[in-house]
Amino acid sequence: MTRLPYTAHPLTREEAADAFSAILDGTVSDEAIAEFLIALSERGETAIEIAAAAQGLRDRVIPVSAPANAIDVCGTGGDGHHTLNVSTAVSLVIAACDVPVAKHGNRAASSKAGAADTLEALGMDMAAAGASAEQSLAEIGICFLFAVNHHPAMRRIQPIRQKIGRRTIFNLMGPLANPAGVRRQLIGIARPGYVHVYAEALNMLGTERSMIVSGDEGLDELSLAGGNEVADVGPSGVIMKRWRASDAGLPAHPIEAIRGGDAAHNAAALRRLLQGETGPYRDAVLFNAAAALMIAGEVETLAEGAEEAAEAIDKGLANALLNCWIDFTKAAA
């Protein structure tokens, strides 16, 4: 069995690459993996270590083809705020703005309803959505990439993570290992103090333009409640910014205003949103959609992005796209 390196000091690029290759290829014992992951978590993972783990997953992914301008909008999860499904709604809104969306996601881990759970409650056949992802992305401009279908190397790791019962580096990996190889992303993480480190990891991996965002209260998306740490990652490296809802011309709202529930509750709220209901949920979606549209190169400012996103909702385009997507997956089942 492979021996993993000591973690008292940050690992070199080569040490980290070798360690995660061994972990993902199953040449290390479960006990050694658990000890290694816990030690990294307690010390605090470095950008090099995060990039190495993500590259290991990328090297072993079952890929899908995607348009060159495809984007992903997702969060790492685990923020504990149990909000409505913002990134799922944002994905529909920006896809309705003609930006291809390769949505990478899974079922809920720590929340009551993940993206897959909510879409299923809306009537989508999630098995068919996963199996027809490449086709739906090409034909209607959006797809759902079920993480479990594309990362076989994680099947052995998942029970170890569950046994550990705490956050590890693998909680950060999903957004960095999109099976479509997207080069533009809006990624939310639940640790505002870690935004720069995570952004440096993405910069090492390479991206055309992406943003890493975190609300000051530990929300894994742009928050309406207060300030947000934002890392804009592109050809110039990592540029740190501070954003508030007012920068997009939107009002502030407390997090409690977008508190979610189970899949049925969240699905009903999402449908009402797409049918034109106003309020805090819509404002949260507009804020995050504005950032995504900036990343996609569709708009120059948050205010312009919020306006374009609102138009896609108010004209019924996002709601029509959801209906089309549900029908597409039924036909593919």
TrEMBL record:
PANTHER family: ANTHRANILATE PHOSPHORIBOSYLTRANSFERASE. HAMAP family: TrpD (MF_00211). InterPro entries: Anthranilate_Pribosyl_Tfrase (IPR005940), Glycosyl_Trfase_fam3 (IPR000312), Glycosyl_Trfase_fam3_N_dom (IPR017459), Glycosyl_Trfase_fam3_N_dom_sf (IPR036320), Nuc_phospho_transferase (IPR035902). The lineage of its organism: Bacteria, Pseudomonadati, Pseudomonadota, Alphaproteobacteria, Sphingomonadales. The keyword Glycosyltransferase applies. Homodimer. Mg(2+) 2 binds at D220, E221. Mg(2+) 1 binds at S87, E221. Belongs to the anthranilate phosphoribosyltransferase family. In the C-terminal section; belongs to the anthranilate phosphoribosyltransferase family. Binds 2 magnesium ions per monomer. Its cofactor is Mg(2+). GO terms for cellular component: cytosol. Catalyzes the transfer of the phosphoribosyl group of 5-phosphorylribose-1-pyrophosphate (PRPP) to anthranilate to yield N-(5'-phosphoribosyl)-anthranilate (PRA). GO terms for molecular function: anthranilate phosphoribosyltransferase activity; magnesium ion binding. This is Anthranilate phosphoribosyltransferase. Anthranilate 2 binds at R161. It is an enzyme of class 2 (transferase). It catalyses: N-(5-phospho-beta-D-ribosyl)anthranilate + diphosphate = 5-phospho-alpha-D-ribose 1-diphosphate + anthranilate. It holds the Pfam family Glycos_trans_3N.
